[in-house]
Amino acid sequence: MSSKLFAIVIGAGTGTGRSCALRFAKAYPVVLMARTPTSYQDTVNEINSSGGKAIGISADAADVASMDSAFESIKTDMAGLRLAAAVYNVSAGYGVKAFLETKVEDFDASVTGNARGFFLFAQKTMPLLLDAVGAGQYPPTLIATGATAAVRGSAKFSAMASGMFARRALSQSLAREFGPQGVHVAHAIIDGGIDVPRSKGYVMNNGVVDGKLSPDAIAESYWHLHTQHRSAFTQELDMRPFVEKF
Amino acid sequence: MSSKLFAIVIGAGTGTGRSCALRFAKAYPVVLMARTPTSYQDTVNEINSSGGKAIGISADAADVASMDSAFESIKTDMAGLRLAAAVYNVSAGYGVKAFLETKVEDFDASVTGNARGFFLFAQKTMPLLLDAVGAGQYPPTLIATGATAAVRGSAKFSAMASGMFARRALSQSLAREFGPQGVHVAHAIIDGGIDVPRSKGYVMNNGVVDGKLSPDAIAESYWHLHTQHRSAFTQELDMRPFVEKF
Amino acid sequence: MSSKLFAIVIGAGTGTGRSCALRFAKAYPVVLMARTPTSYQDTVNEINSSGGKAIGISADAADVASMDSAFESIKTDMAGLRLAAAVYNVSAGYGVKAFLETKVEDFDASVTGNARGFFLFAQKTMPLLLDAVGAGQYPPTLIATGATAAVRGSAKFSAMASGMFARRALSQSLAREFGPQGVHVAHAIIDGGIDVPRSKGYVMNNGVVDGKLSPDAIAESYWHLHTQHRSAFTQELDMRPFVEKF
Amino acid sequence: MSSKLFAIVIGAGTGTGRSCALRFAKAYPVVLMARTPTSYQDTVNEINSSGGKAIGISADAADVASMDSAFESIKTDMAGLRLAAAVYNVSAGYGVKAFLETKVEDFDASVTGNARGFFLFAQKTMPLLLDAVGAGQYPPTLIATGATAAVRGSAKFSAMASGMFARRALSQSLAREFGPQGVHVAHAIIDGGIDVPRSKGYVMNNGVVDGKLSPDAIAESYWHLHTQHRSAFTQELDMRPFVEKF
Predict the structure, then answer these.
(1) Domain contains D246
(2) In this predicted structure, what is the pLDDT of residue D166?
(3) In a domain, A245, yes or no
(4) What's CA B209's distance to the chain center, in Å?
(5) Mean pLDDT score of chain B, rounded to an integer?
């Protein structure tokens, strides 16, 4: 494990966030962020008890003061280390609702959590990533988790799609601005249900085995993105179960 | 002119909004909306003095109370008429800024004006458009003005692109939900500078004649969208000067 | 009717081609092209007997010698006139087939008719269109009819999609090369079944009225594309029935 | 190295093809295919002399008889092994040419090498890949190398884009048809110049270090695609140098 670098995963719950934290913890100390310790504490313990190093910080990605305070903590906790990778995995404002039953609060919740939070997270992490260019084996990397709703507006997904389209807009804009400065910015379109504890009850793809995305598999591709040579950065890739219609 | 129908154009300033109001006023009474009368008053006068019928209403598209109040007025002013067409042409939060100099207020301004306003405008107009299905010669139509930044995130456009991507997300979602109910929802990607009074000083495409989009030409295509047969709805089209690189 | 200009529609059968010929014949003499007179003769007669002017020419768009000969005829038949608009509406190699049952001949037929024919048609018409810049009221226009299979490869559509993707590639390439020279090149994504005599038996969208595209409606949008001001060219638009899933 | 599986790379020259062969040879015996032994012989020797196993077969991907014969050889040479991965890396008909100077032969060359060859290669390899489902550690994989010209038609790229769009159409169609059967089909958009011997003289991105794609980096991502879990298949990803404008 490199002693010079660390990683941050925000939206570190039981699915993709947890798997990313575990995957990146094989190489770096990891900061797990979520609104409440309930989300990250088990994973923090799991990492620390298996030879890795992790800390958890409670923060609301979309709240300026909360992010200011969280990154002050990180500065202290990770003193002397540079930021190798940051993963934005917050999901917010999800809800399938007919448009005329969708409240402006639903719209606000989606845009706030899905895009404003990513904006603030990027504002906090980008200076740290720029500072890490050339410091580690791999180019510093900022990855955002996207969804089908990031590339396709659908009936009853007006709120969700608004926030996810905006998140993708940010990811593209940042890639074009910071790629030439050596920071790798990527966006992953997760097209399908993820196999997490709370989705156990949902039957997808007729219940076929591997009909939901394994969060560990997603994390493995995120790690691959992080390791890509700077002459061959991927900005966007999709991921879906082999049986998913698309 | 049909006496049973009317149209609304919001973001009715000196460019596309004004041209749309003039174009749709050839067929319908038109409500022009903008934050201040300065934006719409000249156009309202121009329409009324040349045989058309227009009223102006001051409103902030992104403000719930303001929209509530504006649509109460419209209900009274246009009593007995149904809504044939609504155009969302608000532009907000424009600004080319390096990401690390972009404030969260810039992000908020773009998302609020470019997307939240469209959300609220659609919430107000969609019930009226649904109520007009079958009432006029053409299917009721909701058109949103988009931009290159709606399909492409660019360096220094992080705030702008976030709002415009979200606007496009809404347009697609609404098209898929309300098309089958007979309402035509379309999104126009305006790819280039528009030839408006305030852009006179900007040299675009080396100053070649017609190197900026004529707002009247844009309005003509919006009118065409409105007249499309319901068996052949266009959801999205691009428009750019013949000399524009793309 | 302008006496200085003419139009060409290739793939002039009973659907979109016929409707385009009729629509453009309101303004220009029209050349209808198809492989056999059976396809175009009735429409030619219909135009000529109702005050318009039309001729039919038999040609295979994808065959060099056939196109050479056809355009020699056109040169004579339309002597003194310039080419205002050309529509490529050939459809070829259609067939929904499992990939492993698809023959290389199916692939060749699709690519040949859907793309090679458009390549040859554009090679013949582009010099004529360039020669017409500034000659008529509207910018000279080359329109290609596309399909869902031009933007989406689907199971069992490998041959069809190959040809239609290539057609779209050509349209984009030509738009970018010849737009700045004043020629408008556009591509229409027709997403749905067209209401033509031979599709009468196919139930689409549960048989709902207007669940298939009216070819007259398509032609009306093609005409609109032709009339667009050069400061606001559309390169691509989609068209589908209001009830079509997309 | 697995003794039950093998891989095929066609278009095995000095760049991406060579790097893929070397990368996949770490895990599998590899068949290198190209039109002439000059293209693949050095790489075959390099693999065999460093502990791997490789054979070279001369074949023209776009020629039916040549492919029939080549795959008869493969059947014998790789008797008892199943096909783990196949990479289509042929590039053909490249040439930046003004449209009116482009010959139909240029169009044919691009479509033939870029798409027809992939069609035939997929017809030959897909039955073998289907037969390998479940046989190895990773899902059997078919990867096609794409380019910017696969997603964007540009001035002077009419021939090139036609073939590359068609190749992408095939890749999508095959992914949608064979993904549910367990075969992973992916398309990589290589957006930039590749750092190969014959491009040494071309200055790209102002000559900045890593301004051309490392073919080894591309191969590393192809290998990652091959190893993806079937619950998280990537259909498409882009790759470009960090300094590339896009």
Answers:
(1) no
(2) 98
(3) no
(4) 25
(5) 96
Contact yes or no for D16/D190 (Cβ under 8 A): yes
Spell out which residues of chain B touch residue C138, defining contact as CB-CB under 8 Å.
Answer: none
Chain A contact set for D246 (CB, 8 A):
176, 235
Half-sphere exposure of residue C89: CA atoms within 13 angstroms, side-chain side: 28
Residue D233 β-bridge partners: A240
Query: Given CB atoms, is D151 within the 8 Å cutoff of chain A?
Result: no
pLDDT tens per residue, range D198-218: 888 888 898 999 999 999 999
Contact partners of D by the rule of 3+ C-beta pairs under 8 A? A, C
Any CB–CB contact under 8 A between B131 and chain A? no
Does residue D196 belong to any structural domain of this protein?
yes
Q: Any chain D CB within 8 A of the CB of A182?
A: yes
Mean pLDDT of A175-198: 96
Contact list, A234 vs chain D (CB under 8 Å) = 221, 237-239
Question: If you search the block for the tokens 């660390």, which residue do you land on?
Answer: A6
Structure tokens at D191: 């957006």
Reported as a single tens digit per residue, the pLDDT across D136-153 is 999 999 999 999 999 999
**Closest to B111 (Cβ–Cβ): which among A64, A115, A122?**
A115
What's the 3-state SS for C115-164? HHHHHHHHHHHHHHHHHCCCCCCCCCEEEEEEEHHHCCCCCCCHHHHHHH
Chain C from 209 to 228: CB within 8 A of any D CB: none
Q: List CB contacts of D207: < 8 A, sequence separation 6 or more.
A: none
Residue D65 maps to a domain: yes
3-state per-residue secondary structure call for chain B: CCCCEEEEEECCCCCHHHHHHHHHHCCCCEEEEECCHHHHHHHHHHHHHCCCCEEEEECCCCCHHHHHHHHHHHHHHCCCCEEEEEEECCCCCCCCCCHHHCCHHHHHHHHHHHHHHHHHHHHHHHHHHHHCCCCCCCCCEEEEEEEHHHCCCCCCCHHHHHHHHHHHHHHHHHHHHHHHHCCEEEEEEECCCECCHHHCCCCCHHHCCCCCECHHHHHHHHHHHHHCCCCCECCEEEEECCCCCC
CATH number, domain with residue C128 = 3.40.50.720
Nearest CA in chain D to C115: D162
- Residue C177: domain span: 5-236
Each residue of C148-159: pLDDT tens digit? 999 999 999 999
Rounded Cα distance, B157 and B97, in Å: 7
Q: Which of B197, B190, B236 is nearest to B213 (CA)?
A: B190
CA dist., res. D49 & res. D37, Å (int):
17
Residue A3: what pLDDT? 64
Across the interface, of A126, A161, A173, the residue whose CB is closest to B161 is: A173
Dihedral (Cα; B5, B6, B7, B10), 10-degree rounding: -150
Nearest to B173 among A123, A127, A154 (CB): A154
Q: Does D75 touch chain A (CB under 8 A)?
A: no
Task: Provide the domain count of chain C.
Answer: 1
Nearest to D153 among C111, C123, C171 (CB): C171
How confident is chain C (246 residues) per 10-residue block, as mean pLDDT? 84 95 98 97 98 98 98 98 98 87 97 98 98 97 97 96 98 98 98 91 90 98 98 98 97
How far is C-alpha B30 from the chain's CA centre? Answer: 13
Please state at what angle helix C215-227 crosses helix C16-25, rounded to 10 degrees. Answer: 50
Instruction: Give me the residue from C176, C210, C237 closest to B231, CB to CB.
Output: C210
Closest residue, chain C, to D150 (C-alpha): C169
Taking CB atoms and an 8 Å cutoff, what residues of chain C touch B246? 176, 235
pLDDT tens for residues A98-129? 999 999 999 999 999 999 999 999 999 999 99
Q: What backbone phi and psi angles, to 5 degrees, belong to B202?
A: -85, 125
| Contact flag A169-B153 (C-beta cutoff 8 Å) | yes
